[in-house]
Amino acid sequence: MNVEMLTVDAARTAVLEKQTTATELVDAFYRKIEAEDPAIGAYLTLCKERAHRQAVRVDALADKGDALPPLAGVPVAIKDVLTTKGVRTTAGSKILGNFIAPYDATAVARLEAAGAIVLGKTNCDEFAMGSSNENSGFHLVKNPRDHSRVPGGSSGGSAAVVAAGTAVASLGSDTGGSIRQPAAFCGVVGLKPTYGRVSRYGLIAFASSLDHVGPFGKTVKDVALILEHLAGRDPMDSTSANLPVPDYAAAIGQPVKGLHIGVPKEYFGEGLDSEVRAAVEAGIQELAKAGCEIVEVSLPHTQYAIPTYYLIATAEASSNLARFDGVRYGMRAREGKTLTEMYRKTRDAGFGTEVKRRIMLGTYALSAGYYDAYYLKAQKVRSLLARDFDEAFTKVDAIVTPTTPTPAFKLGEKADDPLAMYLADIFTVTANLVGVPGITVPCGKSKEGLPIGMQILGRHFDEAVVLKVAHVVEHALAGAPIQAGS
Amino acid sequence: MVSEEDVTYVADLAHLELTAEERARMLKDLNSILAYVERLSQLDTTNVEPMAQVASRYAVAKDATAGKAFAYAMRADELRPSLPHDEAMSNAPQTDGTFFKVPKVIER
User: Fold this and answer.
1) How many domains does chain A have?
2) Does some domain include residue B11?
3) For A106-150, what is each residue's pLDDT tens digit?
4) Residue A23 buriedness (CB in 10 A; 0-12 / 13-18 / 19+)
């Protein structure tokens, strides 16, 4: 069985129809991970005992002829910012290098309740801060499509495992684009749901008003199938929305004729890579062919999104990361003779450069005398960005943009220039600031064979429209699901 | 814009101990980033409400104030089980079995 080609649907069908057992599937994936992941670096921790226990449970049900849960036997990987009870959870940071989580994140628990099998924890930028996975406290992740290039970040590992076929699907987190950008760079599908659609309980917080949990898959349908299980109110997360969960998989394949698709002129300006433009325009043409009406719209405050994001995200991060102080969990520097020394030496040793930089920026933006000019100002501009989208969505049902300004860049290319790295998030951060759902779907390749992604944004809680529009593009331009490793 | 003293002050607030090299780097990076975010001052936000939360826009009534907006998230004030003590202590770097142990606090 060629496991690298499996979609969620194919994997669960194979188990359901007894073409394979869950145990055989898990073993096959671990053989593949052992053989191929060292060259990629996507995994930080493998949880073989947990995976085998779950596989045995699924196989016992199958043997008895009992009904199987909907994702029974589907092997998934989890970004290491999500807690897994009894399993090391590091958030990609040395400061949590020895942390064993005492509880499961809701998103993880829901997937396992549906029968999915967690193979391991994936590598990421430290505390989800980064756009290339080069800020991992442990090691790099290489783009499976081109090992000299970044997979994107911060969920580089979760994107890479789906692209490499070393998991069928995965979970990531997206605070400024950290699911969508690596999905685009690796040529897979990635979805950032609406803020509040999926519980953040068990997600190690970076910026609480911007963080989202979401799925990666080879196809739009896979992502819809996973989302169905992740979504829904969670009493453990008071920002999770009290709204029903539609049948997302059923939305796929529904007609898109008559939908109004917005093309925001600010996202297609001078600096856009010509190959990215061509690939995304090809996607837009397919939507027109399918009967959508293409409408030019304006999101006039787009150029202010990155500064707004980097003030709000870093301010929230400086607060959220204050808890890593060596007191209750994680690394503790032994040389500290006083409490304050212990805090400082622990954080100095435990945090990487980018994390320190963002904590410093965030602390500065919140400090007395600067709060109004920076943090409060950014919150007001956030309102203006939200109004842009409210206005646009009175005219259109979905908005399409490139996901990233260029295809995957080379390892080391932007590592010394933090501002250049931040500007790569230009198309993705607005959806985090405003909370609208966004998906990226592969829509072409560069001359060098690098994947290019198209982003589709929708109204709050309108993932169904986002998914069905994405599927039209996928079906027209990709034909069959992306072949892992190609 | 940002001076070396600012870097020291902010590092103190953030409980970060930076090396001299890190300090120099931080000065340069912070100044370049702050110069970039300066463009926000081009916008007139005099009568614009700050937006701290996306979720406050999900209120059942559009004009619901903060208390009402999250009313659905409230539960009865009843004691319920939470993380057991031994599990909460399980990652403690140093403990006497009941409390987390830390070095002594010294008055500045």
Assistant:
1) 1
2) yes
3) 999 999 999 999 999 999 999 999 999 999 999 999 999 999 999
4) middle
